[in-house]
Design a protein that fits this description.
Layout (H helix, E strand, L loop, with lengths): L9 E4 L5 E3 L7 E6 L6 H12 L1 H6 L2 E7 L3 H11 L4 E4 L4 H5 L3 E6 L2 E6 L2 E5 L5 E5 L9 H5 L2
Parallel strand pairs: 3-4, 4-5
Antiparallel strand pairs: 1-2, 3-8, 6-7, 8-9
C-alpha cells in the first residue's frame, strides 16, 4: 500500500473476534498502526503514548486501530494491562500485514526471521491512505505527536 491507495474494506477481527471493516470508520480519519508484539518494550511504549494522547487524537478527528499478529487473547490481556481505549486487530495469519506490505524479513541479533515492520498508515475519511509513517521514522514514546503534526 502506498499514499493514494484505497485501504481494504475488511481489516480483520478485533480482540473480541468481531469483524472490523474500514466502513466502520466512515467519516473519520483512521490511524492504522502495525506493531510487532504485545507486551514488549517498544510496542508498549507506542500503545501507551497513543492511549495517553487518545483524547487529542479523537478531538482531531482520528480513530486508532492497532494491528499485530498476536492472538485475540493476547490482545485482550494487553488492552486490560495497559488500559488501552482502542481496538487491536489479531492478524494471526498476517493477511493484513502482507496487504499493507509491512510483513518482511528482519534481522535481530544476527538472526533473520519474518516479522512486522512498525509502520503507521493515516487513512482519510474516504478510506484513502493519506500518509505513511515508516519504521525508521516512528518514535514509540512520542508517536501521537508524529500523527498530530
Amino acid at each position: 500500500m502506498k499514499i493514494g491507495d484505497k485501504a481494504p474494506e475488511l481489516l480483520g477481527v478485533n480482540q473480541q473476534g468481531k469483524e472490523i471493516k474500514l466502513s466502520d470508520f466512515a467519516g473519520k480519519k483512521l490511524v492504522l498502526y502495525f506493531y510487532p508484539k504485545d507486551n514488549t518494550a517498544g510496542c508498549t511504549a507506542e500503545a501507551c503514548n497513543l492511549r495517553d494522547n487518545y483524547a487529542d487524537l479523537q478531538a482531531a478527528g482520528y480513530e486508532v486501530l492497532g494491528v499485530s499478529k498476536d492472538s485475540e487473547k493476547t490482545h485482550q490481556n494487553f488492552i486490560a494491562k495497559q488500559s488501552l481505549p482502542f481496538e487491536l486487530i489479531a492478524d494471526t495469519d498476517t493477511t493484513l500485514n502482507q496487504q499493507f506490505g509491512v510483513w518482511a524479513e528482519k534481522t535481530m541479533c544476527g538472526k533473520t526471521s519474518m516479522g512486522t515492520l512498525r509502520t503507521t498508515f493515516i487513512i482519510d475519511e474516504n478510506g484513502i491512505i493519506a500518509r505513511i509513517i515508516g519504521p525508521k521514522e516512528i518514535k514509540t514514546k512520542v508517536h501521537a505527536s508524529q500523527i498530530l503534526v
